[in-house]
Structure formats: C-alpha cells, structure tokens
Model the fold of this input.
Amino acid sequence: MTALDPDRAALSVADAPEASEARKLLRRFLGQKAFVVGLCLLVLFVLMALLAPVLSPHDPYVQNLTARNVPPFWYAKGNWLHPLGTDPLGRDYLSRLLYGARISLLIGFSVVVISGIIGTAMGLLAGYFGGRIDLVVTFLVTTRLSMPVILVALAVVAIIGSSLWIVILVLGLLKWDRFAVVMRSATQQVRSLDYVAAAQAAGASTTRIILGEVLPNIAPHLIVVATLEAASAILLEAALSFLGLGVQPPLPSWGLMISEAKAYMFFSFWLIALPGTALALLIFAINLTGDGLRDVISPEGRT
Done:
C-alpha cells in the first residue's frame, strides 16, 4: 500500500455521510409520486418549447385560407399534414401549440425573476432588520394585497397598451407579495440561529451575512414559492390574452388561441379543447412540482 492510501480512506469515510444524505434526499423526492409526475410533465413541456422549431411541421404564422378549420387526424376529414388541424386562418394548430409553450414558459420564468427579486429583497430586509423597515414592508404588502392583481393588470394594460413584454413587466411588478411574506417569515426564523450569530461575532458585514448566511438557508422556500407563482403568472397571462389585453396576435399564446376559437366552440370544439388542455396540464405540472418540493423541503415533509 502507498502512503496516500490512508488519506484516501479517510476522505472516503468523510464523503460517506454526504453521499448517504444525497441518497436519502433522492429517495424522499422519488417517494413523492405527485412530484415525480409533475416534474416529468414539466420537463416534457420544457422540451416541447425548446424543440419547437424542430418538432413543428409548419410555420405557426403562415396562413392558408384554403385549409381553414381542418379537424385533427382522428376526425374523418382530418389528415396527417396537419395532425391537430388548423385554426380559422388556416395556421397549423400543432405548430402554434408548440410555440405557445414557449410563450407561457417565458412569461412564467420572467415574471418569477422580476417579482422574486423585488419580493425577496423586501422580505430579507424586513425579516433581518425588523423595526421601521419591517413596518414599511408590511404596509407595502398589505397595500398590494388590497388590490386584485387581475383588475390592476387589466387597468394598466388598457391604459398603456398590451404586448408580450408589457404583460411580463406588469405581472412581475404585481406578483412580489408572496415572495416578500414568505422570505420575511423565513428570515425572522433564521436570523437568530447560531451560524448567523457566529458570523456576526467574526465581524462579517451585514451584506455578507444576509447574502452568504441567511439567503442560502432560506433558498428552498424561495424555490417553492417561485414554482407556485410561475403557475399563477401563466394563468393570469392566459386570462389577459383571452380578454384581448394580453399577448397580441399573431403570437401563439394559448389564452389568445382560446379567445380566437370561442366563436367556433359549437362547431369546432377542439379549437378550444387543445390549448385549454395544454394550459391546464402545464399549470397542473407546475403545481405538482411545487407541492412536491414543499413536502420534501419543509420540516413536516421530513418527518
């Protein structure tokens, strides 16, 4: 045996608890069947969005009025040239559904980033410093909660106009309240723990303590809130688009596709059923993933 063998053995023993914890965490995740189902569905939607240019059989924006309202392939008049049929303007429905996944996921991710930065910053400051800062943040959260998101979004978009990025910005500036509430509560619990006191005693700056000690330890709560808020943002965008104040044509938003098809619901029901089902499955997948993360990460999920 070489002289390094004892050192390697010691490292293996030291790494063993970490590997054991990783296996336990993996088993906990796999034990949550709802989380596994939700994560698989979510990964499927993400792949659909990323691979939309490859999977789409046609350009989602090209109109063909000679092929309007072609039914899906399982109908007698359907064909495999347009597997899920066409819309009233002759655009391929499968292609628009695939590109619609891009719109929904982009909105969900962007809104979560904007609102997450605002709400997390407010929650960290209020929870760590308390006092007047906490009173101001609590007042802002209470004021925000007194205003219904959908009504404020409708009013703002109606005044300044609607587009993809305006919808993202408006929703991002309105959806920060849950981040602030959860981060404030989590920070209040963490700030009195021993490792924070040790960092303070070692002379670490306030910024170093908040970003290096507090934030990493409340990040699991942040991830859970982010998944749930992403689903809410996607649903709100679909509602705004359905009302004509969200994403504007010809972008293939699922809410807009439902709105464009409402005049044909008694004659071509699949025009509403397909984007409605896709939207419901995406919201379902995100909510299942968020619930599974909460069950695994939260203390009651560990018992």
Remarks:
- The chain has one domain: 48-302.
- Residues 9-14, 299-303 have pLDDT under 50 and may be disordered.
- The chain is about 75% helix and 0% strand.
